[in-house]
Design brief:
Blueprint: H1 2-18, H2 21-30, H3 44-57, H4 59-64, E1 66-70, E2 74-79, E3 89-94, E4 117-118, E5 121-123, H5 131-146, E6 155-160, H6 171-180, E7 188-190, E8 194-196, E9 207-214, E10 216-225, E11 229-230, H7 239-252, H8 261-270, H9 278-283, H10 285-297, E12 309-317, E13 323-324, E14 327-336, H11 342-353, E15 358-362, H12 377-389, E16 394-400, E17 416-418, E18 423-424, H13 426-429, E19 438-440, H14 441-458
Parallel strand pairs: 3-6, 3-7, 7-17, 8-18, 9-16
Antiparallel strand pairs: 1-2, 2-6, 4-5, 5-19, 8-9, 10-14, 10-15, 11-13, 12-14
Helix pairs in contact: 2-5, 5-14, 12-14
Length: 460
């Protein structure tokens, strides 16, 4: 048995040593580090397998950096700088992925965990979210180490293992460990932003969207109670009917669209690169902001940038077709614009429903990160890194309409940004958490170059 494990280890090291960055990402995709909401379903052996693979794939990183395993499967890697007086910088990503929606397996062009490389693409779950982030940073660090690069400013990598289920064991534990080490960062970069290749406002230029903020997260539970009983003698208003009416009211009364700071900054940044009348509109948002927000609200792709969104996501009632249930329950998820609060949203929904027999409960999403400074040094480093690889790109601040592990690192960093240097189309972005997730080989290779530049320039 010992010989078998030794042989397998040698084979793994040999395979990783001669693989290319593309092949290494494909292999990482094949390791099914799936986070399920039902934690008892999670196969943690897969997470250990991935960590073992990372160790043999990036020998210089794991030999020369200070490496800790936190909360069993998350990784903390510290690359000391030569000047202790400088604050370090932090780069984060996560190793877990979401499951494939049951029943959609056959809709994939290639099996979701096969790690197929074909047609100039790497296919599979995690190619965009977020194994590209983990692998790209490690590829960049390994290359710089091989070249003898010595950072003046310290660099820290933190790779959580449960971001897709809130990061309470991964990023939260990593953050706690960094506080124990008394670490404080000049700035940090997490997942989120990207280069968009087909922005209609910039048809000839990619748009690098560096997220300086992200939306808040809130799920409320609605419960309707009332008379149950046999379906042959139903009540005038059933619990299902009462709950359905409440949900219909919620959908019929969405939050008003408005421009927030990061989105205004995005338009002001791209104004010099667009023609008229758009340039006038973007340069005078004090006058035109309402019109811009209204136009964005009309398109599903841009609506989340200007509105606290409402999504009816779960409903549960009844156990038998001829029994009227005395209780019906639903969950509604909101993604909050900067400035909106959980309490404000709940109060609005309570007024919209206007039914005392529908109760509302919720657990607010704690620690929504503040808006970071898009004129600070960290943003400048990211901008320089992008334009070193994509000289034609327009780098803009932006708003992430989803959520990340960044919230766990509040207080550890002066500014928090979200960006992986991958180029994609708007349609491709919809495959994140969806079907046929993939990354273009060239895009991945260039994202490694951007990561190299962020590390090298950031550690000056």
């Amino acid at each position: 048995m010992l010989r078998f494990f030794v042989a397998m280890t040698v084979l793994l090291i040999s395979t990783a040593s001669f693989a290319s960055p593309v092949q290494r990402l494909a292999e990482a995709v094949r390791i099914q580090t799936i986070s399920y909401q039902e934690r008892e379903r999670i196969d943690y052996a897969q997470f250990q397998r991935l960590n073992d693979y990372l160790r043999v794939s990036y020998p210089l990183v794991f030999a020369r950096l200070q490496v800790e395993t936190v909360s069993d499967y998350s990784l903390l890697l510290r690359w000391p700088g030569s000047d202790d007086s400088l604050k370090p910088i932090l780069f984060t990503a996560h190793t877990d992925v979401v499951p494939v929606e049951p029943g959609t397996e056959d809709d994939w062009a290639h099996p979701a965990f096969a790690g197929v490389v074909a047609d100039g693409r790497i296919y599979g779950r995690g190619t965009l979210d977020d194994k590209l982030g983990v692998m790209g940073l490690l590829e960049a660090a390994e290359q710089l180490l091989a070249e003898g690069f010595v950072p003046r400013r310290g660099i820290v990598f933190a790779f959580g293992h449960d971001e897709e289920i809130s990061g309470e064991q991964g990023a939260a534990s990593l953050a706690a460990r960094m506080r124990e080490l008394d670490l404080h960062f000049e700035w940090m970069v997490d997942e989120g932003g990207m280069l968009l290749s087909d922005n209609p406002l910039l048809p000839d230029r990619p748009m690098a969207m560096v997220n300086v903020a992200e939306k808040g997260y809130l799920t409320i539970t609605l419960v309707a109670t009332g008379e149950g009983g046999h379906s042959s003698n139903p009540p005038r208003i059933s619990t299902i009917g009462r709950l359905s009416n409440a949900l219909a009211r919620i959908e019929a009364n969405p939050f008003e669209p408005r421009l927030v700071g990061p989105v205004e900054a995005m338009f002001e940044t791209i104004a010099p690169y667009v023609g008229q009348p758009e340039r006038f509109v973007f340069n005078n948002l004090w006058l035109t902001g309402g019109i811009v927000a209204s136009r964005m609200d009309d398109e599903r792709l841009t609506l989340p940038f200007v509105r606290t969104t409402t999504a009816l996501t779960m409903i549960n009632a009844g156990v038998k077709e001829k029994v009227v249930p005395p209780r019906a329950e639903a969950k509604v998820n909101f993604r909050l614009l900067p400035g909106d609060t959980a309490e404000g949203v709940v109060e609005y929904i309570r007024e919209v429903i206007n039914d005392p027999q529908v109760t509302i409960s919720y657990d607010p999403w704690e620690n929504v990160p503040p808006i970071s400074d898009h004129q600070a040094a960290g943003f400048q480093v990211i901008s320089e890194a992008v334009t070193a690889v994509y000289p034609e790109a327009v780098v803009t601040p932006s708003l992430l309409t989803a959520t990340t592990d960044t919230r766990h690192y509040i207080g550890l960093s002066d500014n928090q940004y979200r960006f992986h240097g991958v180029m994609m189309s708007a349609g491709q972005a919809s495959s994140i958490h969806g079907t046929n997730e993939f990354i273009d080989v060239r895009s991945y290779e260039k994202s490694i170059l951007i990561a190299r530049e962020m590390l090298r320039r950031g550690a000056r």
